[in-house]
## 1
Amino acid sequence: MQIIKLLTYCFIFSFILVGCSDDDDDNNPIQNNEPSRSANRIALGNPQTPKDLLSADNFTSLTIEMVSVQGFEPTAEAVQAFKTFLEGRLFKPDGITINQRTVASSGEAPFTIEEIAEIEQDNRTLFNQGDDITVYIYFADGSRGGDSSEQVTLGSAYLNTSIVIYEGTLRRLASRPRSPLLATIETATLNHEFAHLLGLVNIGTPLQSDHEDEEGGHCNVPNCLMEAAIEFASGMMGIGNVVPQLDAQCIADLQANGGR
C-alpha cells in the first residue's frame, strides 16, 4: 500500500469573498495495485506534472474524465468555457478531449477529502497512456465537511491530476438573490482548481516574479483568478457574470514552465 499526501487547494465562498485555502494536509492511504496508475496519484507540488500538463514534451494530448453524480452535471456553457481556458494555456497539438459521464450518488455527503479520494478509486477509469495525460474531475452532489453558514468550499485540487467540484454547494449559491449564473461559478471554480494542477502559485511551477501571497499557494495580485480571496464588484459574489482571469505574472510562470 502506498501512502500519498493529500494536500488540497480549495476554492471557498465567504460572504462576498471567493477564495481558496490549503486546509487539508493529511496523510491518506491510496492503494496502487497497477503501476501504470501511479503517475496519476502523486501529491500536489510535484514539479513534473505541471510541466507535463502545460507542454507537449511528454504528452501531446489531454483527456479530462469528467464524472458527475446524476442530476449534478455542470452546465454546457461552463464545460466549453473551461475547455477554452485550457486551450489558451496548454500546448497539446493532438487536442484536448472532455469525456463526460454520470454515476450514482455515493450517499456520503458532506464529504471529507479522504472520502472524495475513495470515490475516485471506485469511479476513475482513465489514466495516463502513451502520449495522452489524463485529469479526473468529480462533480459531487453535496458539500465539503466543515462548511459553515459563513464559509463554504466550492472545489479542491487534491492530487496531481484530481479535482473535486462541490456542485451541490455551487447550485445553492447560484440560487441566491443577486448571484452570478451557475455557469459563471462553475467556470471560475474549474479554472482556479485546474490552475493549481498547473502548479500555481509556486506549487510545482517556479515563480518568475514575487507574486505569491503570504500564506502560500496563491497570487497576491488583486483580481487575479489565483487570489486566495477574490472580492467581486457587486452583488453576492461580484463581477456579475465575468470570470476572473489569470494576471500577467501567473501567465509568465506558466509560459516559463512550457505553457502558453
Note: Residues 78 and 183 are 5 Å apart (CA to CA).
## 2
Amino acid sequence: MPDPRNELPAPGTLEDLVQQALDEARQHGADAAEAACSGDVGLSVNVRKGEIDTLEHHRGRDMGVTVYFGGRKGSASAGELSEQAVRDAVQAACDIARYTSEDPANGLAPAERMAVHPPDLDLDHPWPLAADDAVELARDCESAAVEADPRIENTEGAGVSIHRGLHAYGNSHGFFSVLPESRHSIHCVAVAGRGEAMQRDYWYTVARDPAALEDARSVGRQAAEHAVARLGAESLSTERVPVLFRAPVARGLVGHLVSAVRGSALYRQASFLVDSAGEQLFPAWLQMVERPHIRQALGSTAFDAEGVATADSALVQDGVLQRYVLDSYSARRLGLETTANAGGVHNLEVSGGAGEDFEGLIRRMGRGLVVTELMGQGVNLVTGDYSRGAAGFWVENGVIDRPVQEITIAGHLRDLFAGIQVVGSDVDRRGNIRCGSILVEEMTVAGQ
C-alpha cells in the first residue's frame, strides 16, 4: 500500500479549486482574477559519521488568489486546499483590494499571450526510494568522501533529497494548466585536515530524473577532492590580475546582469543598467539565450507564473543587450511588453568564444586568480560596484600553484562584463542559468 505522505493531490481537485476561486472572485465583483494551487511531497535525509542526523517527510498544500477591481489589487493565500480555504482567501483578497489605491499597471498578462497549447517538457520523474534506502545512499556518499583521502578527518554530512510537486494555475482569461514536476539531489560536505588547518568543501548533483544524477560515491569523492585541494591556503598581496570564475560561481556573475535588467529594478531606477537595452555590454562574440523548452532541464517551463507562453529568446546577442527581464506589471510600468519572465529566467544559456575546457582556460590565463567560492553581499546594483570576499587558487605559468583564501576581488560590473575574455565549455547546468567558467581580463585582488 503506498505511503499517503508520498501522494500528490489529484489534478482534478486542483482544477476545481482554481475554478472555484475564479468564480467566487467574479461573484464578489472583481473584473479579473488569477489563482494558483500547489501540492508537494518529498523526503530528505542527512547522515553524519554514518548516523542519521535528520529524516523528514515533506507534504505541502497551499493556494493563492489575486483579484483586480480596475487598477486596485488584492492578494491572499491559504495553507490548505479546501473549498472553505478558497472562500476565505477570495474574501480576504477582495477586502484588501477595496482599500488599495489605483495602479493602472495592475492586471493580468495580456490574453493573447497565454500558452494555448503548452508542450510536454517531461519534467516529472518520481524516485520511488524508501527512507531506509535513501539513508544508505547518503551513507555511501559520505563514506566515499572519507575513503577518498586520508586527510579527510571529518564531514559535515551527506544527504539525499526527493521532491515532487503538482502546480495548477488559472485566470479569468480562461487559461488553466496543471504542471507536474520533480527535483532530486544528492550532496556531501567534506572536511580536510585538523585543528586550525581544516578546510571544508562540498559537491552536489541535482536533476529532475533520478537516472540523470551523478553516482552518490562520485559526489562524495568530489567533495573530498575539493576540500583537500584547499589545504594550506594563504592570502595574497594586492594587485590587478586576470580572474577566472569557475562555472558554479560564474553563474552568479550572470545572475547580477539578470537582476540589474529585471523590470522591478528598472522602474524603480534602482539599477546601473537603466535604459541600457541596445547597448554593447559584452564582447561581440558573447551570446545569452533563454531556452525554456529543453526537456527535463531544471529551468524549463511552457509558461511563466502568469500563464504567458515561453519561447527561445535572446537576452544578449553579439554582446548587445536585446531586452529586459519583465513580467506584465513591470512591463506596463516601463511602457513595454512582458518577456514571459514572471518568476525568473528559464534556462539562460551563456556561450561564445573558443569554448575551451577549464584546464585550457587556466593555460590561457597564464597568471592570475581562479575563484571557486564567493562570500559576502558586496554587489551594489544601483551603482554597479562589485566587491566580494573570495577563495580559490593562484595560477602561475598556466598551472595551479597554490590555494588562496581571505582575499577580496573588486571592480565594476560594466568593466567585468566588457572584459570577459572567454566562456568555457565546462557548463554547469544545475540551475536556471547554464554557464561555463568565465575568464575576466582584470580585477583588483586584495589580500595582505
Note: The longest helix spans residues 131-148.
## 3
Amino acid sequence: MLSNIILALPLMGAVSALPARLAVREVPQEHAHENVLTVVDAGLQSNNPGNFGASVFGLLGKAAAASGAGNLADADCLQQAIADQVFTNGKAAGDVNTMTFALIYRALERNTGAVGQASVPCASVKAVNPEIAALQQHQDPASNGAAALNKQIATELAKQIASIGGDPTLANEASTFAPGKLGDPTAKGLTCDDANDKAGCINTLKLRVDDLSADEITAAVSGVSAGAANAGNATAAAGGAAAQACAAPSAAAAAAPAAAPAATSAPSSTAAAPAATGAASNKAAFGSCDPSIVFTQTPADGRQEAAFQAKDLSTFPHGSALGAKVITDFICQQAVNKCKIDAATEATCNAASTAASQLKGQAAADSFNAAIGF
C-alpha cells in the first residue's frame, strides 16, 4: 500500500540497547501497528538464529524487506519467518503474550507499490508452528476481494489466539485501514506511519477498520480451547509477563497490549504489594490525568460482557478488553506523553500493570489503581 521508502535515520542509543542480531534498524514505512512491532521485536531478541532485522522489514515489499532478511533467501517469507521464530521463543518461555502478538504480526498487511495491489504470499517456506502456518497477511483493503478475505484471516487469527489461551478479541489488532482510492499517485491510501507512536498510529488516530464484531469473534472461537501450544507451560505462562517486563526495554513493555496469561493458582497477597508504596506520590506524578481503570458489565464500546476499560476514555481512548493488561499497558505508554510522567512513574505503572495481570475482574482493577495511587 505504501511506497517502499527506507528512511535512514540516526540510530543513536537505540541500537546499543539491542543485540547485534537486531542491529539492522533503518526505519522504513509500515509503522502503523507499532504496538505490535514493539512486542515482536522484544520477542525476537531472545533467540534470532535467522539473523533477522527489525520486524518492520517483514511488512515491506520483497526488495526493501531483503535489507532485514538476514539468512533467509526469500524475502517474501520474512514476515512469516519472523512470526514463526517469535512464536517459538514465546512458546519456549511459556509467554502467551509474545505468542499472541507473533500471531497478530503474521496477519498484518504487507506493503505493496500501489493502492489496490495485493501482496505476494510466502510460497517457498513452511512455518514450523501450525498456528503460524494457518495464517496469512491481510491484503490491501482496496484490492479485489479483500473485504471477505481479510475477515476470513481475522476469524482464523481469533481462533489461533484462543487456541493458545490468549484473548481472541485482540484479533482486530491486525485489522487494516479503510480502502484507498485506486490510482492514487502517492500509493499511500488512507494510512498513517509513525514509529514514535508506540500505541500504533492506526489506533491513536482511529483509522483502524475492525474486521470482526464482538459477536463474530465469540462465534469464531466457540468450542476452541487452549491446546498443545500452551500445554506444559502453565507455570511459565503465569510468570511470562513479568519476565518480559524485566527483559525488554520499558518502552516495549509499555506498548504491549496483551491478554493476561492464566494464573495456575491464586496469587499470594504479595502480588499487589506495590499498591501500598508511595500511593499518594504516585497519584501526584500523573498531574491532572486519571489513569485508573474500571471493570464494568457495560463497556462503553458496546461489548456484551464484563471487561476492562480506562476510566477516562477521552485521555486514554482504547476499546474494552477481557484482559486488564491490554488496557493498563496502553495507559502506561500513553501517560508518558499525555500526562508527562517521568521514567520512575512509568516504571511504577508498568510494575502495577504486571501485578494486576495476575488477578482477575475487579481485583485486577483495584490492584492497578491502588498501585498508581488511585
Note: The chain has two domains: 6-229, 250-371.
